């Protein structure tokens, strides 16, 4: 640290991480870490730490913006514990010569599992049914109680056919689903090898029984699913968002769910996280809501952290790290 005369570079970690994930950095670097696992580092503390740090190991809760990057005179790398990095101003990072890395690949299957979980849970109303059971509302087996939509044999439309989208599509084959996808670029291999079919967004929305959003949040995708798009969907359709809240217009979604324009939604992400307790979405029985747990398996989270630690060590020791986005 400052004034101790030692020449080690400083790594600041914005959340309390398991010691086994951090240990590999301790020998070569000064490791400093926010004290809480649950609460994000306050902005003021982050700015102060960024002024000294050579590396920042960040979560999506941190705004790594131009102001921060301008103050971070020593900074060589921002390594983000996520595949998405919409919280980082990559343009400003590039201008300041700061490398940015993320954690792709290792979280693909885990996140695809969770997206599929949300499809099943929203279609079969499992959250609503469990809440009723726990509230003592289970009086008897009922002929039409908690009846939902079938997944097996239905049409699935994937919006954003990256690694995770393909993972969901592969799972869907086991449920005999008909898979459509929409993406910036076509995926010839997904089409020829697996029989997934490309569709324009409007066609996909009209034809799908399940629409699963797995695109990154960019200027292009912000608000991509709004009132008009929801209006194209079937009244029996289920919308799943396991990507970023900002891609779906929440006000329009609330209206569509309330008015029976679509049937249900399964959401792992929200425009504001954590979502406010009194948010209108949480008052709707046909919403299955999860607190952004897409990549949350023990093995995957530790694998993500390993990628971050390796990238930080590589950059600070003069090697070129993997998984650079800048
Ligand atoms: C990601 O990886 O982008 C998730 O949203 C956070 O783990």
Automatic annotation (TrEMBL):
Species in which this protein is naturally found: Bhargavaea ullalensis
Primary enzyme class: oxidoreductase
Gene Ontology MF terms in the entry: glyoxylate reductase (NADH) activity
Upper classification of the organism: Bacteria, Bacillati, Bacillota, Bacilli, Bacillales
Domain D-isomer specific 2-hydroxyacid dehydrogenase NAD-binding per the UniProt entry, residue ranges: 116-294
Keyword check for Oxidoreductase: yes
CDD domains: GDH (cd05301)
Protein name listed in UniProt: Glyoxylate reductase
InterPro entries: D-isomer_2-hydroxyacid_DH (IPR050223), D-isomer_2_OHA_DH_cat_dom (IPR006139), D-isomer_DH_CS (IPR029753), D-isomer_DH_CS1 (IPR029752), D-isomer_DH_NAD-bd (IPR006140), NAD(P)-bd_dom_sf (IPR036291)
E.C. designation(s): 1.1.1.26
Pfam families to which the protein is assigned, alphabetical: 2-Hacid_dh, 2-Hacid_dh_C
SUPFAM superfamilies, A to Z: Formate/glycerate dehydrogenase catalytic domain-like, NAD(P)-binding Rossmann-fold domains
Keywords from the named record: Oxidoreductase
Family statement drawn from the similarity comment of this UniProt entry: Belongs to the D-isomer specific 2-hydroxyacid dehydrogenase family.
Domain D-isomer specific 2-hydroxyacid dehydrogenase catalytic as annotated: residue spans: 11-325
